[in-house]
Write a structure and sequence with these properties.
Layout lengths: L28 H11 L4 E3 L27 E7 L6 H20 L8 E7 L5 H14 L5 E3 L9 H7 L3 E3 L4 H9 L5 E3 L5 H16 L9 E7 L2 H15 L4 E8 L7 H9 L4 E4 L4 H13 L5 E4 L6 H7 L7 E4 L7 H14 L7 H19 L5 H8 L2 E5 L2 E3 L11 E2 L10 E2 L1 E6 L2 E6 L16
Parallel strand pairs: 2-3, 2-4, 4-5, 5-6, 7-8, 7-9, 9-10, 14-15
Antiparallel strand pairs: 1-12, 11-16, 12-13, 16-17
Helix pairs in contact: 1-12, 2-12, 3-4, 6-7, 9-10, 12-13
């Protein structure tokens, strides 16, 4: 990965400054090499024997005989909830994308052309918003790539991207999206993280290790599972239920709520009437999870509290405060606690004056950089066929770990250590515990910076 240079640039207003760009636009070889060098090759490894692509023909040849080079901005799309209940995550997405763009542009752009971010706000995450955003970005804005934190659960917008061939990257963490792409033989839609099935599969061995070494002595071998009605949350809950029952634990409480949810009283009453050893919450909205933690801490049971993904967003601790101390949570994509990750976090804070969340900002930053380097190598970011061919062969080390697709058809990033026991070839499934207000990674090695501690509400 190229060094983060900390350049300051303004967040795009979503209108995009570039003129519409046709799919046949090209660059000269000199500009191609300049852009390839500027975006950096430190994080990009290509396999399969693919070499550098020849530069495409110039964009236009005037009647006077001399070739002209298109120097207009290259538009890339952001499909993000920048307004509405998910705007905390949406801000993380667009800030990460813009930081990557600022760095790339400061170093010469892609093939000598600068990037411009065009934002499609999906607000409340309604499927029609995703479809409309896709249509606008592909058909009107003529973007060279699209980056999205979330996407629809039924993949309803994917056909628009597939028909156009535009590389589309998302962090929706949903196996159903990966399966849809595989089943429909789509070759240009990439899930930039391991899917949600690994949450449930990965946590059971970890909790068993804590029990084995005496770090955690559960009050009983029972678990209360609380999920939202979102297919993503339900998938995690069911995968965990299957895995935990396989080791002999029972699930006396299994509750599904409609998100967003603020009143956890009825569920907590059930939990308090028969306290479990573990409370496993798969709702992912930071506000919901902070509310649960606060209401739980009013009269806590001797139960370990696990909350999935949401505590990675800064909004969570701002709302939960001390009630979040001791909570365990995981993410299948997170900014790593190493020199590369720390440099990015410092870069983000210097630019925006606040701490980055630990998932979306770094992931979106990585995906824009990954695409830009590949597009520069292709020589023409609008040569979608070649760009997608090159993308299939990469191993890329970013601030969130290693991006490498499970296969050419299963376009999801492989998880470490759940599927691949080599951190250089997979992205770590990170587990954190909030200890005295600090997000401490406790698993896996070599990324752990602390050990699991008994939660403060345990007697």
């Amino acid at each position: 990965m190229s060094d983060i240079d900390g350049t300051n640039g303004e967040l795009g207003d979503g209108t995009g400054s570039a003129t519409d760009q046709s799919a046949s636009a090209g660059v000269s070889r000199r500009d191609f090499v300049r852009g390839l060098t500027a975006t950096g090759l430190g994080g990009l490894i290509l396999g399969g024997g693919i070499g550098y692509a020849a530069a495409p023909k110039s964009a236009a040849t005037p009647s006077g005989g001399g070739a002209t080079v298109d120097t207009s901005d290259i538009k890339i799309g952001s499909v993000s909830p920048v307004t509405g209940p998910y705007s905390g995550d949406g801000q993380e997405m667009t800030r990460g994308q813009q930081l990557a763009i600022d760095e790339i542009n400061a170093n010469g752009g892609v093939g000598g052309r600068k990037l411009a971010l065009v934002i499609g706000d999906v607000s409340d995450l309604a499927p029609e918003n995703y479809v409309q955003a896709a249509q606008r970005l592909v058909n009107q804005e003529k973007v060279a790539a699209v980056f999205s934190g979330y996407c629809t659960n039924d993949s309803s917008e994917f056909k628009i991207y597939a028909d156009a061939g535009v590389p589309m990257f998302h962090l929706n963490t949903l196996q159903a999206n990966v399966d849809f792409v595989t089943q429909n033989k789509m070759t240009n839609i990439y899930e930039g993280c391991p899917s949600e099935i690994w949450y449930g599969k990965g946590f059971v061995p970890l909790m068993q290790s804590w029990i084995a070494d005496g770090s955690w002595k559960p009050s009983s071998n029972t678990v209360a599972i609380v999920t939202s009605n979102d297919p993503y949350s339900i998938s995690i809950a069911q995968a965990f239920k299957k895995s935990v029952e396989a080791i002999g634990w029972t699930v006396p409480v299994y509750e599904e709520v409609t998100a967003p949810n603020a009143d956890w009283g009825p569920i907590l009453t059930k939990i308090r009437s028969n306290p479990p050893g573990l409370i496993y919450v798969t709702d992912y909205i930071p506000g919901d999870l902070a509310s649960f933690a606060k209401q739980f801490r009013d009269a806590p049971t001797q139960s370990l509290l696990y909350q999935q993904y949401g505590p990675s967003v800064p909004e969570y601790l701002q709302l939960a405060k001390e009630a979040g101390y001791g909570v365990v949570w995981s993410t299948t994509i997170g900014t790593l606690p190493d020199d590369i990750g720390k440099t990015f976090l410092d870069y983000y804070k210097n630019k925006y004056g606040s701490d980055a969340g630990l998932s979306q900002a770094g992931g979106e930053y990585d995906l824009v950089k990954l695409w830009a380097q590949t597009a520069a190598m292709a020589g023409d970011p609008y040569n979608f066929e070649l760009v997608n061919k090159l993308l299939k062969k990469i191993t890329y080390r970013g601030v969130s770990g290693t991006y490498r697709w499970i296969s050419d058809t299963e376009l999801s990033v492989a998880p470490y250590p759940d599927l691949v026991n080599d951190p250089s070839l997979a992205m770590p499934h990170l587990t954190y515990q909030i200890q005295d207000g600090v997000q401490v990674p406790v698993f896996p090695e070599p990324y752990a910076k602390g050990k699991f501690q008994t939660p403060p509400w345990f007697k």
